[in-house]
């Protein structure tokens, strides 16, 4: 089922998400819905808080952009209860956007390599290192679980310049091709 994407200003986007355990109700359905919502929204990742569910879960599927970046080939994963245990490498600036902040794209500085511990959809433990674009995508989605948005990483001046656009989004004054929900 395609779910509405919660917009900037929704309290769920600012909460630190809760860990879950095996047996979490309707988990497979939630994962399917996250992927379906991602595809419908032309996204490459989606965190559960973005659809109003404050749990430590996000999905990534870069198939729609894999031709642009070889590291993204066959990069489809489910991350449950993730914890980034190290940030490494140089910081690189890249233009990011977010389905919860439609119409705004900004240059964001992030580390080029991370090590993350997480569980897959069967609650098997993994510890992996990612670099380049996959590391950036994971950091972006992980931030949603921590109650952070990419706009939090911008300079105070840049945030001030975006204030009226962000206020408009928080009031639901947006034009998207996907379903959105504003609960401010």
Commentary on this structure:
This protein has a single domain, classed as Peptide deformylase (Peptide Deformylase), CATH 3.90.45.10. The radius of gyration is 16 Å and the shape is globular. The mean pLDDT is 94. The chain has 184 residues and is of the alpha+beta class. The protein contains three helices and seven strands, in the order βαβββββααβ. The protein has a five-stranded antiparallel sheet, sandwiched between helices.
Record the SSE blueprint.
Blueprint: E1 5-6, H1 27-40, E2 45-47, E3 57-61, E4 76-97, E5 105-119, E6 125-131, H2 133-145, H3 156-170, E7 180-181
Parallel strand pairs: 1-7
Antiparallel strand pairs: 2-3, 3-4, 4-5, 5-6
Summary?
The chain has about 180 residues and is α+β, with helices and mostly antiparallel strands. About 25% of the residues lie in helices and about 30% in strands. It has one domain (about 5-180): Alpha-Beta Complex (Peptide Deformylase), CATH 3.90.45.10.
């Amino acid at each position: 089922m395609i779910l509405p994407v919660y917009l900037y200003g929704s309290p769920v986007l600012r909460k630190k998400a809760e860990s879950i355990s095996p047996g979490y109700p309707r988990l497979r359905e939630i994962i399917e819905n996250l992927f379906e919502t991602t595809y419908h929204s032309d996204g490459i990742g989606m965190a559960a808080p973005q659809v109003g569910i404050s749990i430590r879960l996000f999905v990534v599927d870069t198939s729609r952009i894999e031709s642009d970046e070889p590291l993204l080939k066959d990069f489809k994963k489910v991350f449950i209860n993730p914890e980034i245990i190290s940030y490494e490498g140089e910081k690189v600036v890249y233009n990011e956007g977010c389905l919860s902040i439609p119409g705004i794209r900004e240059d964001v500085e992030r580390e080029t390599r991370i090590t993350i511990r997480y569980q897959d959809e069967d609650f098997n433990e993994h510890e992996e290192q990612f670099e380049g674009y996959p590391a950036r995508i994971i950091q972006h989605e992980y931030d949603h679980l921590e109650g952070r948005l990419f706009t939090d990483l911008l300079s105070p001046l840049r945030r001030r310049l975006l204030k009226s656009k962000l206020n408009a989004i928080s009031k639901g004054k947006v034009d998207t091709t996907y379903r959105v929900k504003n609960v401010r």
